[in-house]
Amino acid sequence: MSTTTASELYPEVKAFLEEGTLKGVVGGKEVESAGGETFVTSDPGSGKQLAEVFSFQPGDVEMAVDVADAAFRKTGWPQLPQNERSALLHRLADAVEKHKPMIAQLEALDAGKIEAQAQGDVQNFVDTMRYFADLAQHVQRRSVLAVPNHEAWTVRQPYGACGFIFPWNFPFLLIGWGIAPALAAGNTVVIKPAEDTPMSAIYLARLAKEVGIPDGVINVVPGYGSVAGAALSGNPKLKRMSFTGSPEVGRLVAESCGANLVPVKLELGGKGAAVVFSDVDVPDTAQKLVNAITFHTGQVCCDATRWLIDENIYDHFVSECVDRLKKVQVGYQLNDKSQMGPVVNAKQHQRVLSYLEKGQAEGAECVLEGGAAEVPGYEGYYVKPALMAGSLDNVAAREEIFGPVAYLAPFKTEEQAIQMTNSTDYGLANSVWTSDLSRASRVAEAMCAGNSWINAHNVFAHGVPYAGINKSGMGGGVLSVETLFDYWRSLSVVRPL
């Protein structure tokens, strides 16, 4: 099906949008906010309303946590044999895959994603759910300890009700990254989706009901971050908490969890560097970094937003990037010809434009102007790709912009490149580009971050830990066996002989 206009929606999508006010899902039931409060989610490509959604208040969130806690204690979910629990998670993955076109179109409408990219996100959810469902069946949860004069062992047990707050840039994909290991380990979950992008989470909870996951194991509480999110992160009945979003909000979540001694995982922002040495294939590397910075309109926390280029190829590399960025087709996200859609909302639109202004005011060179983009027929939040250059002390080089903007600077030596890479408070992901694999490994290991990639950027393979350090987060990563262990508590059992 070719989706070129908003009128060519799948029938299932139209029916979902025409239901009326969308409800949260708690205990397997669709639930309104107790006081009837609502908010609106809009299409960032057109600026038009998509749906009205019930906005959960603190009391509503408390009720959802109580339900998740009760489900953990009473439904038998944590006591299920691992193969039976994994089978249910595979059924959920199968149901999502069956509805992938519909979920992807909902996601594209809600988040402003190019529809093909949204389909990739949905498939990633499916793959993540299957990965952890299978992994949990092969991990030894009981370990015998060799202790003189004692019979001793440890056993891993699920925690209980776990809270999750997800952002608007990868709503469905990140739900998979978050809840798949928690569910596979036998926990129950309460999901607070971003107010800009609540629809796919609500639909997922409905599918969970259909495939037979016990009521209360997966709950969705839509609402504003300052209200529903704050109530969730501050709930003392949670046993674990996970937040993905900005460092500023992450600090508030950490404070709330700290007050209740609830362990928290934070996956926050980034200001990643791509270090490009002179021995690369310049056109090929330029295209790959252009693809990275324009993917989902640059709204990617681990993106390469600082391009550090060997001075010997700097002018050539910049010229290649400018030529390619000028050809990027900015357009409505359901148009097959669009290569880059809108940013998510008016606030984010203004944020990107303001950083272009602030960066130039502090002396940055405007290599490619960027700015607001016009898409005929659509009153959405569109921006053009932009390139800036100059001192790394510039505000546009220091702070996360979250748009299709890269900041360029030349380097002379390998040592200088490493120093420039590490001159940031963030520590999420960087990449090194060179045909010398010895140098690639050496530089990658010297980068101060949770992740270093070689001759690629934005690489997420199941089985490889992904996490941030410093201002980019704490509390462990995702996509690996360590993540599964995060959702089991360890119990020691000892009998003196």
UniProtKB/TrEMBL annotation:
Keywords: Oxidoreductase. It is an enzyme of class 1 (oxidoreductase). Residues 33-484 form the Aldehyde dehydrogenase domain. InterPro entries: Ald_DH/histidinol_DH, Ald_DH_C, Ald_DH_N, Aldehyde_DH_dom. This is Phenylacetaldehyde dehydrogenase. Belongs to the aldehyde dehydrogenase family. SUPFAM superfamilies: ALDH-like (SSF53720). One of its GO terms (molecular function) is phenylacetaldehyde dehydrogenase (NAD+) activity. PANTHER family: ALDEHYDE DEHYDROGENASE-RELATED. Its EC number is 1.2.1.39. Pfam families: Aldedh.
